[in-house]
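Quick check before the chapter quiz. The format below is the same one you will see on the exam, so make sure you can read both the input and the output lines.
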Amino acid sequence: MNGNQAQDAAGTADTPVSSDTADYLHVFDSRTCNIHHIPVSDGFVRGSDLSTIAAPVKGNSGRMQKLAVLDPGFQHIACKESGITFIDGEKGELRYRGVRIEDLFHDHDFDSTLHLLLWGRLPTKEEKIAFERRIFEAATPPQEVCDVIRKLPKNMDFISMFLTGLSTYMGTDEEMTRSSVMTYHKNMKATDDAIIRCFAYVSATLATVYCHVKGVELHPPKEGLTLVENFLHMIGMEDPDKKVSRTIDRLSINMADHELSCSTAAFLHVASSLTDPMTCLLTAISAASGPLHGGALEVCYQGLELIGSVENVPAYIAAVKAKKFRLFGYGHRVYKTQDPRAALTKELMEEHREAIAANPLLQIAVEIDRQANTDPYFVERKLKLNADFYGCFVYSALGIPRDMIPGLLTISRMGGLMAHWREAMNNPIKIWRPMQKFKL
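Here is the expected output.
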């Protein structure tokens, strides 16, 4: 095919673009000598537009193969549009529904942030009270849930107990067990009711597991408390000045949503089949338990214990640079500057300085941070401190057992998970079914 034929087949690069779209990507396909004009909107091209590019299959000129994209780990592909969370990884900005994370952290509590994520605006005083009351009304665990959890060995893995309890809780909810019925899609009342129950089920189950492991009494929920305050009340943790609950609140705001994290994507992948939200949540918790995701907090702590002393930090940094170890808590898929949540976590560390300073691993963490901030290896790669690095110190300073931290992180992430689910239930649904490239 000559150049003129190519122009006849697909137009020229000088063809005026549509007034509807300001930008086009002009692609010359050397396989067919065709020129393709792919619309670009806000820096994105649509996969369906790319798939209009096709060429004969090698060895079978009568059959055309559409162009597809191979992107292991979904590093360059957006699978949905969302109005919930905005991240600018170059500037280190994070916003929920247009509100800066710093403003939410300093001026609002976790329950208000949940309302913002779910319904797009901060609540009035009356709306916040009503929201908290609805969670309270659903937060008393059924006897079946308590019985199942109490039969589990106390030395069993905490997350395994948590998942077992949640599965049992789900089994007592007749609506959620009707997974073959399309209950929630385009039914926002049923969706919102289920969201409230999910918040209650998660906090009540976590409290029940904690009390079982510690051998302490589980207290019934109390009206008039926030989500975090009620959780602390149920496990019998004294918090007269609200210092513990306010700290967990702010840690939870920090972790409430982060676009399509691994666990959020896993949640939505399952949700695309239109099953119930608790089934999706069990998937998300399982995904978050891995050491490259929510489990990174615990892995950070284990890494510090392995180093043992400040004197061993240079050798550890050298081993990381030689790719013998991974430096957990540093670097992020999205951020190329400091994670804004890390700076906020440092503020909480300052508030609890005395309790945190008593932790012998803190000096090791500080020295790692100092060296990584000045070492060209980390500086040139724009590897900065992320939200995981110091988070474990704050939780420990509050008296939270390390094995319970992933469970608390589930409560923290519930707002984002439920907001994304609500958004999905209010939009047209396509089941998520990624492609693969076959390779011998």
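If your answer matched, good. The first strand starts at residue 23 and ends at 29.
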